[in-house]
Amino acid sequence: MIREGGQACTMVVRTTHWVVPHYWVWGLPFFLFYSTRASQFLHDRPNQSFIKTFFCLLFSLLRAIVSKFIESYVMWKLPLEKYGLKPDHSFEEDYASCQMAIMPDNFFEEADKGMIRFKKTSKWCFYDQGIEFEDGTTLEADVVIFATGYDGKKKLKAIVPEPFRSWLEFPCGVMPLYRGTIHPLIPNMGFVGYVQSNSNLHTSELRSLWLSRLVDGKFKLPSKEKMLDQFSKEMDVMRRSSRFYKRHCISTFSIQHADDMCNDMGLNPRRKSNLFLEAFSPYGSQDYRLNQEERN
């Protein structure tokens, strides 16, 4: 929200990504497209059978249609082309890499008033009065806010001692976390909240439950080789889904990821009350509330 009488600001955009105004698309709830068992059946997943792989190839056109359907709504609803903010990749690539965002209220209204301006550039640097861009233009600035997120790997490298620090991103530049939690090469340490999904709080809560049961000895981990192999299969899926795969996001197979953790813990992965809800309703934290029998 820009205060009345405030000065205009410039938003420097390095890479454009798809944004949505809300969780409805042409009158349909967004979860129908990516967050149900039926919708995720259209996407690749780790450890899928040959028949499932064949079906994924058949459904590739349908996935592209779904992505274009959502893009058409976003382009109709938001003035992305007007401000040069239309991405050059599909919506599905951003969703598969957890880079879809919800626009703040009145954002483009303020842009229409000239209170928010946009500058697309891949490189920039400071000079004595503000910022200089790669095309030689400059921008005088009183305040520069870095809204670039954070590099979690740098924080972990500052905490984890050697020799484990050098193994954090082994073998492919991405942390090989089994079930999004356990690094096969680093003993006695779990990582919760690092691997992203379409609902980080829900996924982190389930991983915390999984980790607590692992610590309590309710189940055992497979061998290091099997854990690394599982991670490699997940990476293969992410590579096929998005050019931004190194963000390590499981959004297109998040339900199977939860199923695997439930199976490890001896819980029933089918958490809905009937087959229709199982196929067409989204999964959330409430679905994984344990009953008295499951707590024991």
Structural class by helix and strand composition: alpha/beta
Q: How many helical elements?
A: 12
Query: How many domain units?
Result: 2
Shape: globular
Name the CATH superfamily assignment of the largest domain. FAD/NAD(P)-binding domain
Q: Briefly, what CATH class of the largest domain?
A: Alpha Beta
**What strand order characterises the main sheet?**
7-8-9
- How many whole angstroms does the radius of gyration measure? 22 Å
Unreliable sequence segments: none
The total of beta strands comes to: 9
CATH architecture of the largest domain: 3-Layer(bba) Sandwich
Helicity level: 25-40%
**Element pattern in H and E:** EEEEHHHHHEHEEEEHHHHHH
User: Strand content of the residues, in percent?
Assistant: 5-15%
Seen as an oligomer or otherwise, the chain set is single chain
Remind me, CATH topology of the largest domain? FAD/NAD(P)-binding domain
Give average pLDDT, whole number.
89
Distance between the termini: 49 Å
Summarize the biggest pleated sheet: 3 strands, antiparallel
Characterise the protein shown here.
This protein is α/β, with parallel strands linked by helices and 296 residues long. The chain folds into 2 domains: 132 residues, no CATH class; 144 residues, FAD/NAD(P)-binding domain (3-Layer(bba) Sandwich), CATH 3.50.50.60. Helix content is 38%, strand content 10%. It has 12 helices and 9 strands. The strands form 4 sheets. A 3-stranded antiparallel sheet has the order 7-8-9, with no helix packed on it. Strands 1-6 form a two-stranded parallel sheet. Helix 8 packs parallel to helix 10. The radius of gyration is 22 Å and the shape is globular. 19% of the residues are buried. The mean pLDDT is 89.
